[in-house]
Amino acid sequence: MSLADCIHTVFSGASFRLVGVPLGGLFNWLTLQMSGRFQIDFWITYAGTKFLIFLFVCFSASKLLREFLSSTGRSLPRFSLLVLFSSVFLTSLQLHGYWSNDPVTSYPLSGYLSVGLTFMFLAYSFEFLRTSKRDIQLKSLFFGLIAVANYELSLGAVIGMGLFVLVYSWSTKRTKSWSRSFAQLLKLQTPQIIIGLYVVMGRFITGRNASTYAGTTVRLDSSFVPTLSKALISSFPGSSWILSRDFLGGSVAMSIRATVIAFTIIFAMFLYGKRAGIRHLAEHTNGLMISGVLFTISFYWIFGTALQSMTIKVQDETPRIGYVYTHYAIGSSVIALVVAIVLLSINWNRVRPNMQLFLAIFASFFILVQLTINWRLSGQLRASFVPNAQLTKVFTHQYPENERCEALRNWTAGNWPEYYETEMVAGLQTSYFHFHGVSFCNSFVPNP
User: Fold this and answer.
1) Integer Cα distance of 177 and 181 in angstroms
2) Residues 6 or more apart in contact with residue 339 via CB below 8 angstroms
3) 199-204, long-range: CB within 8 Å, 24+ apart, which pairs?
4) Torsion on CA atoms 325, 329, 330, 334, rounded to nearest 10
5) Helix (H) or strand (E) holding 364
6) Could you tell me which residues come within 8 angstroms of residue 166 by beta carbon, excluding any fewer than 6 positions away?
7) How far apart are CA 213 and CA 10, in angstroms?
8) Which residues contact 85 (CB under 8 A, 6 or more apart)?
9) What DSSP character marks residue 41?
10) pLDDT tens track for 265-302
11) What is the pTM of this model?
């Protein structure tokens, strides 16, 4: 029944997510099974899934970084690149969940899973340009299709890759024969063409439903450019500090735990950075491939952000810098990747010690402030969603009915949209009866 609902949603929803919708349905089903049958708290499944997805993003980014280095004639162990990107990426993330639809704190599959899949597509695409191996091209096609079928914002990377392939094909042309040049270009563009056909087919199937959801309804008026500008700026590290301060009461108190964690991370990065020998990397570079990597990831970020900035939902929910949507997953990942590329491209032996010391102090200050802000926001989020945590707890561990009813009444006292509260209560009653043979709360009466 759940699978049938997913398939129906794929073909009748506002966007054609042939992979994303069934995958989301599977995740929901597994989460419910873990809680209802095995008494494993929702937050454990949630946190575990979020950890694996962030790990996948870091892994895929390290693969793309490794391909970047291979294209420049340099190499570095995958684990070193994984540590480098993870250090930049995870210490620069900003929590927005207290005021915004934030992919960092929200539904685990939203945003970052598609980023990981897209980075894999780009990594294999650049590897194919370097090696011309057919199996590598098939991997590129596979990850590109899965990424776009999971979330349409990945289309920006496919278009960006297609544009770069045009430049690459022209720059490396070895024959004057027009037919051979066209055949070679067609071969290089095969993954992009197939993915493009999938997108066209999806728009043909579900295009008429786009206006049924504000997140896919386009509004190209004077709101678009300001929304796009704010959305792009909000992806940069530190851009939400002022907004965070406002939501934290006008000031941000230092946290001892956050400070200890920050300095532990800084110390570990310093020690590993010296041992990994990152300072001795970039001495010879390939300008075409470097430009290609930077262009495609930048195009992916700007295109995805622009696509969402066209919609009514994002325009109405972006009043100032710091308000984000799932486009933040792309922006934060791409910016971290660019920073990692810059670090790999600098010949640190030629950087004066005073400048190195200044950069180390600046990075340490940033990490300390960012982790402190996130720590305080995380505490405020936990305090705000105590009724949610209590409701899932009594569901998982089969508390007495009077305690279940009390938890449900406390939760419904929150300011929830009517449709959300109605469906949540109905689903809670049905699922609890399914697992335990009794209703979650027989005496519950909805608020008038």
Assistant:
1) 6
2) 88, 92
3) 199/148, 199/152, 199/155, 201/16, 202/15, 202/16, 202/18, 202/152, 203/16
4) 140
5) helix 353-384
6) 185
7) 14
8) 58, 61, 62, 65, 336, 337, 340
9) -
10) 777 766 666 555 544 444 555 677 778 889 999 999 99
11) 0.88
